[in-house]
Amino acid sequence: MKVQIWSDIACPFCYIGKKQLETALEQFPHKEQVEVEFKSFELDPNAPVAVDYDVHDMLVKKYGMSRSRAIAMNEQVKQAGKEKGIDFQFDPLVLTNTFDAHQLAQYAGKMGKGDLVMGELFQAYFTDGKHVGDRQTLLDIAEKAGLDQNEVQKVLDGQEFADDVREDEKEARQLGISAVPFFLINDKYSVAGAQPADTFLRALETAWTEEAAQTEKAADASFEEACADGVCAVPSPKEEV
What we know:
This protein is of the alpha+beta class. The chain has nine helices and four strands, in the order βαβαααααααββα. A four-stranded mixed β-sheet has the order 2-1-3-4, with helices on both faces.
């Protein structure tokens, strides 16, 4: 079973959603048979790498609210994260463009470390006050995850994984995804937003039950085809070359 997650490193609810899915998977008896794939989504593709204002002022500019209201909203998110084991630190947070971070995540996914690197990116951005648009920060995260720094340098200098980022974003547009996090299970069941763990668990159980029923149906059809007219056919042995 496959779970695809469109998210952005700069999205606090994507971090919370990741934690909620992890909680659901811990309760899911078929956890080891679930593949999780992170898909790229930039909330602001035009964001500069260097930003001279903080996250509170970002909300002021984006929504026209007062700074005190922006601080209060971020405090609410901080408390929500605390309940899920996330230590949001908004005051030292460094706003930046996340495109290179997505390239690193794409490469990590190909190396079987997508979940690990996404966790490290969220931690660096939201808790440690690291500049995830900075090349050295990304190289340090890659090394911590056990990835080769020289290979990651090539990834960030090249085009292959940049194309993968754009392809994920194109797919999101085709699916009508305009906000993240967005979870797609087995290309059929979707969960939008950082929903409670129970919501994810129900979606996983529904998808698993349906997949098991389809597998059983296919097996029955295969058996009926092979054993028609009261005779069971045995596949002919392959000729030796």
